[in-house]
Amino acid sequence: MKNTERMVRDIERSLKTLNKLTPALVADLVRRGGTRATPERSQSNGPRGKGTHSDPTLAAVVRKLSGNSSSDPIFDAVRSIALALDDIAKQCQHIDDAVRFATNADTKESTIVYCQACGREIAGTPADRVRSGYCQADYQRWLRAGRPYRATFEAQVQQEFSETL
């Protein structure tokens, strides 16, 4: 199977699943699984004596340690759906960013740049980058000369270059 066909198949499968999740269905799922079911309190606890108080945190710890926690598959399923939808939203944002980058990539076209002083072609490597319109050698030469007026510097370099030919 080609990569294009696989991607289209994955998109169709995802859309088929996500289109089933209407706002009404999501509201119904949240209503059904909004709170975890708790086990019925047994009457074996009996009446409490005077001076006792309710400690829900302690009661939850005791329930957890004693293994009396009730399983609530609907709550767990709704929580799983919510976590999966959150992951899907993050992945969709990642896909949007990647598609935007791939389709709107402002690729820089390589252009031939010539030194304004000697007329030499500058390759564009970091060692031969253009600085103030000059190749690296002429830029350093221009700095050592105290940054003279550009037109006179360029004329001087061109004259020296033509004399060496």
The domain tally reads: 2
Q: Can you give the mean pLDDT?
A: 80
% residues in beta strands: under 5%
Terminal CA distance: 62 Å
Oligomer: single chain
Number of helices: 6
Structural class: mainly alpha
The largest β sheet comes out as: 2 strands, antiparallel
Number of strands: 2
Shape: elongated
Low-confidence stretches: none
Calculate Rg over CA atoms.
37 Å
- Portion of residues within helices: 55-70%
Describe the strand arrangement of the main beta sheet, using strand numbers.
Answer: 1-2
SSE ordering: HHHHEEHH
What's the gist of this structure?
With 165 residues, the chain is mainly alpha-helical. It has 6 helices and 2 strands.
Top keywords for this entry?
mainly alpha, single chain, 165 residues, 2 domains, 6 helices, two-stranded antiparallel ribbon, 2 strands
Topology summary:
Layout: H1 3-20, H2 23-32, H3 56-66, H4 73-103, E1 113-114, E2 121-122, H5 136-144, H6 150-164
Antiparallel strand pairs: 1-2
Describe the protein.
This protein is an all-alpha fold. It folds into 2 domains: 1-35 and 72-107, no CATH class; 113-164, no CATH class. It is 57% helix and 2% strand. It has 6 helices and 2 strands, in the order ααααββαα. It has a two-stranded antiparallel sheet. The chain is elongated. The two termini are 62 Å apart. The mean pLDDT is 80.
